[in-house]
């Protein structure tokens, strides 16, 4: 199972085995990205991809309902604007590379919400998060075994670069005096648990 996160475009390059982002097969990409969760880099939010746009960012127009800049009352004319222009003007995000690429559709069927590829990273899925929590929450003896086994496996004492700088790494864990704390107690609705 792949636990990597990162830019959506890099995820597609790896999945399709291409060397260039312009060689991506968008039909395959649409299938691979469906139901994948992405995290925004400019706001704190996570979205689920339902598809890709048919046109590139700089060709998708939508109607933007305007607001008065000074808070004045009255009717404001809606304007037709591209996704690219919206992110440049209203979000102050300059889409450099992927303005001519398709957008991620994170809306609902029949009501699309298009987001540019450039500003979103693939978030780990729920299954990946659960696996990560299980791996991180290892028992102390299991954690110790993983560390000591990796020290034996990688043989850092035989790495020429480390020995050239007189760096040595012990294979044993460092011992120190300490004490074991009691587990914390939690109060729920006034009762101690």
Automatic annotation (TrEMBL):
Domain (PAZ) ranges: 7-124
Domain of life where this protein originates: Eukaryota
Give the matching Pfam families: PAZ
SUPFAM superfamilies in UniProt: PAZ domain (SSF101690)
Q: What is this protein called?
A: PAZ domain-containing protein
InterPro entries in the record, alphabetically? Answer: PAZ_dom (IPR003100), PAZ_dom_sf (IPR036085)
Enumerate the GO terms in the molecular function aspect.
Answer: RNA binding
């Amino acid at each position: 199972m792949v636990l990597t996160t990162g830019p959506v475009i890099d995820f597609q390059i790896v999945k399709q085995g291409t060397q260039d982002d312009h060689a991506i097969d968008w039909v395959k990409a649409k299938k691979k990205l469906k139901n994948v969760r992405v995290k925004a880099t400019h706001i704190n939010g996570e979205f689920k991809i339902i598809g890709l746009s048919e046109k590139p960012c700089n060709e998708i127009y939508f109607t933007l309902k305007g607001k008065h800049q000074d808070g004045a009352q009255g009717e404001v004319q809606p304007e037709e604007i591209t996704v690219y222009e919206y992110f440049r003007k209203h979000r102050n995000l300059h889409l450099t590379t992927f303005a001519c690429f398709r957008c991620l559709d994170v809306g609902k069927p029949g009501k699309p919400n298009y987001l540019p590829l450039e500003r979103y990273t693939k978030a780990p899925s729920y299954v990946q998060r659960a696996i990560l929590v299980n791996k991180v929450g290892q028992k102390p003896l299991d954690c110790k075994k993983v560390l000591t086994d990796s020290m034996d496996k990688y043989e850092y004492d035989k790495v020429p670069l480390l020995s050239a700088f007189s760096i040595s790494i012990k294979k044993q864990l460092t011992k120190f005096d300490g004490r074991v704390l009691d587990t914390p107690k939690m109060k729920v609705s006034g009762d101690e648990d």
